[in-house]
UniProtKB/TrEMBL annotation:
<feature type="domain" description="Peptidase S1">
    <location>
        <begin position="32"/>
        <end position="257"/>
    </location>
</feature>
<dbReference type="Pfam" id="PF00089">
    <property type="entry name" value="Trypsin"/>
</dbReference>
<feature type="region of interest" description="Disordered">
    <location>
        <begin position="278"/>
        <end position="308"/>
    </location>
</feature>
<dbReference type="GO" id="GO:0005576">
    <property type="term" value="C:extracellular region"/>
</dbReference>
<keyword id="KW-0720">Serine protease</keyword>
<dbReference type="InterPro" id="IPR001314">
    <property type="entry name" value="Peptidase_S1A"/>
</dbReference>
<feature type="compositionally biased region" description="Basic residues">
    <location>
        <begin position="289"/>
        <end position="308"/>
    </location>
</feature>
<dbReference type="InterPro" id="IPR033116">
    <property type="entry name" value="TRYPSIN_SER"/>
</dbReference>
<keyword id="KW-0865">Zymogen</keyword>
<dbReference type="GO" id="GO:0006508">
    <property type="term" value="P:proteolysis"/>
</dbReference>
<dbReference type="InterPro" id="IPR009003">
    <property type="entry name" value="Peptidase_S1_PA"/>
</dbReference>
<keyword id="KW-0378">Hydrolase</keyword>
<dbReference type="InterPro" id="IPR001254">
    <property type="entry name" value="Trypsin_dom"/>
</dbReference>
<feature type="signal peptide">
    <location>
        <begin position="1"/>
        <end position="22"/>
    </location>
</feature>
<comment type="similarity">
    <text>Belongs to the peptidase S1 family.</text>
</comment>
<dbReference type="InterPro" id="IPR018114">
    <property type="entry name" value="TRYPSIN_HIS"/>
</dbReference>
<dbReference type="InterPro" id="IPR043504">
    <property type="entry name" value="Peptidase_S1_PA_chymotrypsin"/>
</dbReference>
Length: 308
């Protein structure tokens, strides 16, 4: 059974040659169709993943060093992180952060399109402000019919014959309702890529995610619950699909808290300190043993003198 599925990154549009859109199975989300501009401080946790100064995907700040995005977004080389601005054309007050390492879910794309989630560790600390703040994420699953919010710089419309879609500079926002899994799977014609690791969300025909929204946050009651993954391009009346944060909660928490993802300098410093403490402890033990031996010898000598 053939289905069109698209990852959301903006740059994929360049590959959609005229008359060959059927060559793709999924399209990753590039933009929000039918959304409204977000106000200045609506999503301070939102970041733009950029390549050579061009927006390719969205992401969400979880801590001062960790960003959550979609796994298919981190295939691009030389990614930088732009934070602190809802307007990509206004860099005043915005901050650029470099990527130190990327952690992709070990089962990404196995089965195909599954576990589309990754974490980015920045080289620099992201100092919090009114425009740069983390968003809490939860292990709870989203109830059916829940009111959700997506923000992103994805395309404003979809034209399979255009080389590049119309991309906004201002951050867009759109409300959704969560769709029951069985209904979503039916609308996707029992697509293999839609499973319990996903959240399906829908507004109405003509409104939805599109190229460039990939990796962006799906928010429920102020908490991050989903990561934009793939759509039936675009706003065609079929629910958009997001990687579920609740389903991948253990992966996220383990990655953030695991010492093996600390910097090599930090690990080396910790090992050196442990070695120094061990050596100091051994020196003290040797000193104590030597003192005890000396004390024992002196005691034996005194007793020997007393006898004679």
């Amino acid at each position: 059974m053939y289905k069109h599925r698209y990852w959301l990154p903006l740059i994929i549009c360049a590959a959609l040659s005229r008359g060959t859109s059927a060559a793709f199975d999924f399209v990753n989300i590039s933009r929000i169709v039918g959304g409204q501009p977000a106000h200045a401080f609506q999503a301070p946790f939102m970041v733009s993943l950029q390549q050579e100064g061009t927006h390719v995907c969205g992401g969400s700040i979880l801590t001062e060093r960790w960003i959550l995005t979609a796994a298919h977004c981190v295939k691009h080389k030389d990614i930088t992180i732009l934070a602190g601005t809802p307007n990509l054309s206004i860099k005043s007050g915005a901050k650029v952060f470099n990527v130190q390492r990327v952690v992709v879910h070990c089962n990404y794309n196995y089965p195909q399109y599954a576990n589309d989630i990754a974490l980015i560790f920045t080289k620099e600390v992201m100092k919090y402000s009114l425009r740069i703040r983390p968003i809490p994420f939860i292990a709870d699953f989203v109830p059916d019919g829940a009111s959700l919010k997506l923000t992103g710089w994805g395309a404003l419309d979809y034209n399979p014959y255009a080389d590049f879609p119309t991309a906004p500079t201002k951050l867009q926002s759109l409300s959704f309702r969560s769709v029951p899994y069985h209904k979503c799977n039916h609308l996707w014609k029992d697509a293999d890529g839609v499973d319990i690791g996903n959240i399906c969300a829908f507004n109405r025909l003509g409104k939805g995610a599109c190229h460039g929204d990939s990796g962006g946050p799906l928010v429920y009651n102020g908490n991050l619950v989903g990561v934009a993954s793939f759509v039936m391009p675009c706003a065609t009346g079929v629910p958009d699909v997001f990687a579920s944060v609740g389903y991948h909660y253990d992966f996220i928490r383990t990655t953030i808290n695991s010492c093996k993802y600390k910097s090599f300098k930090t690990i080396a410093a910790q090992k050196l300190k442990r070695l120094q403490n061990y050596q100091k402890k051994k020196q003290m033990e040797n000193k104590d043993r030597k003192a005890k031996r000396t004390s024992t010898k002196n005691l034996v000598r005194r007793r020997h003198r007393q006898r004679h």
